[in-house]
Amino acid sequence: MKPVTTEKAVRMIELNNIITIEDDRRKTRTEIKKEFEDTFKVKVDKMNTLITGNRKICYIKLNPKYPAIDVATKLGMI
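Above: the chain's sequence. Below: its structure in C-alpha coordinate form.
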Protein backbone atom coordinates (compact mmCIF):
# COMPACT_ATOMS: atom_id res chain seq x y z
CA MET A 1 0.00 0.00 0.00
CA LYS A 2 1.67 3.18 -1.25
CA PRO A 3 0.09 6.66 -1.11
CA VAL A 4 -0.34 8.72 -4.28
CA THR A 5 0.86 12.28 -3.61
CA THR A 6 -0.20 14.26 -6.66
CA GLU A 7 -1.90 17.66 -6.48
CA LYS A 8 -5.19 16.04 -7.45
CA ALA A 9 -4.86 13.46 -4.65
CA VAL A 10 -4.19 16.15 -2.04
CA ARG A 11 -7.16 18.20 -3.28
CA MET A 12 -9.40 15.11 -3.02
CA ILE A 13 -8.29 14.65 0.60
CA GLU A 14 -9.20 18.23 1.48
CA LEU A 15 -12.49 18.51 -0.43
CA ASN A 16 -14.02 15.02 -0.63
CA ASN A 17 -12.45 13.03 2.25
CA ILE A 18 -10.93 10.59 -0.30
CA ILE A 19 -7.53 8.90 0.09
CA THR A 20 -5.72 7.72 -3.06
CA ILE A 21 -3.36 4.75 -2.76
CA GLU A 22 -1.53 2.42 -5.11
CA ASP A 23 -1.69 -1.27 -4.28
CA ASP A 24 -0.86 -4.69 -5.69
CA ARG A 25 -2.90 -5.46 -8.79
CA ARG A 26 -3.63 -9.03 -7.67
CA LYS A 27 -5.50 -7.96 -4.51
CA THR A 28 -9.28 -7.79 -4.59
CA ARG A 29 -11.39 -4.82 -3.48
CA THR A 30 -12.49 -6.54 -0.30
CA GLU A 31 -8.91 -7.45 0.65
CA ILE A 32 -7.75 -3.85 0.14
CA LYS A 33 -10.72 -2.44 2.04
CA LYS A 34 -10.24 -4.80 5.00
CA GLU A 35 -6.49 -4.14 5.14
CA PHE A 36 -7.03 -0.36 5.03
CA GLU A 37 -9.71 -0.42 7.75
CA ASP A 38 -7.62 -2.66 10.01
CA THR A 39 -4.42 -0.67 9.54
CA PHE A 40 -5.83 2.81 10.12
CA LYS A 41 -8.87 1.98 12.33
CA VAL A 42 -11.31 3.85 10.05
CA LYS A 43 -14.58 3.04 8.26
CA VAL A 44 -14.58 2.99 4.45
CA ASP A 45 -17.85 4.17 2.89
CA LYS A 46 -16.98 3.60 -0.78
CA MET A 47 -14.05 2.46 -2.87
CA ASN A 48 -13.27 2.73 -6.58
CA THR A 49 -10.34 1.07 -8.31
CA LEU A 50 -8.52 1.87 -11.52
CA ILE A 51 -6.11 -0.52 -13.22
CA THR A 52 -3.48 1.04 -15.46
CA GLY A 53 -0.67 -1.11 -16.76
CA ASN A 54 0.67 -3.08 -13.82
CA ARG A 55 -0.72 -0.75 -11.12
CA LYS A 56 -4.01 -0.64 -9.24
CA ILE A 57 -5.02 2.80 -7.99
CA CYS A 58 -7.65 2.86 -5.25
CA TYR A 59 -9.82 5.85 -4.40
CA ILE A 60 -11.05 5.26 -0.85
CA LYS A 61 -13.86 7.48 0.48
CA LEU A 62 -13.88 7.53 4.26
CA ASN A 63 -16.83 7.91 6.59
CA PRO A 64 -17.30 11.58 7.60
CA LYS A 65 -16.49 10.67 11.23
CA TYR A 66 -12.89 9.92 10.15
CA PRO A 67 -11.07 12.85 8.49
CA ALA A 68 -8.89 11.79 5.56
CA ILE A 69 -6.30 14.39 6.54
CA ASP A 70 -5.48 12.35 9.68
CA VAL A 71 -4.89 9.18 7.63
CA ALA A 72 -2.84 11.16 5.10
CA THR A 73 -0.64 12.42 7.93
CA LYS A 74 -0.08 8.84 9.14
CA LEU A 75 0.85 7.81 5.57
CA GLY A 76 3.29 10.73 5.30
CA MET A 77 1.46 12.44 2.45
CA ILE A 78 1.03 15.79 4.22
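Residues 2-75 form a domain with the Alpha-Beta Plaits fold (CATH 3.30.70.330).
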